[in-house]
Amino acid sequence: MNVTEDSLREYIEVFHSCLSNTADSYLSSEIGKELFHLSLLPARIIGYVSTQFGIAIEYFPAETTVIETQRGSARIEDLLVSAPAWLRETGHLLSIIGSNSGISDATLSDAFPFRLMNDGAELFINHTNFEARDWKHHLHYAEVYGNRSAQF
Fold first, then answer.
1. How many domains does the chain have?
2. Can you tell me whether residue 19 is helix, strand or coil?
3. Which one of 20, 51, 142, 151 is most buried, by most CB atoms within 10 A?
């Protein structure tokens, strides 16, 4: 069974609640705020569910934390970066085949940025710009997974 919009939203809520409660119980408030995912908050968090391939979670800085989900029939990479159709046809710069791959503080130009090549592929994107011709897209932080099973 594949993840749904509702189950992804619930996962994000439980993840952040559990992380925050555990940090509050065992760490000083200053150290707790330094835990990576807590350091991203407050944020507008968008969970993307592809009915074709993959899921993603994107964080935008915001004044309060809000969790949204979106579902689409395109591949997860296409849903996340919202590239124009002509760019999706140019080929991609990076082929992601394994877990724990990352891009940070980079600009990827003149081709579609990346493709996950299998269900086990994962990509973490931090402060990265994508651009080609007049199209530009910035990701503050996102996690992209090829595996969209509910069990995962």
1. 1
2. helix
3. 142
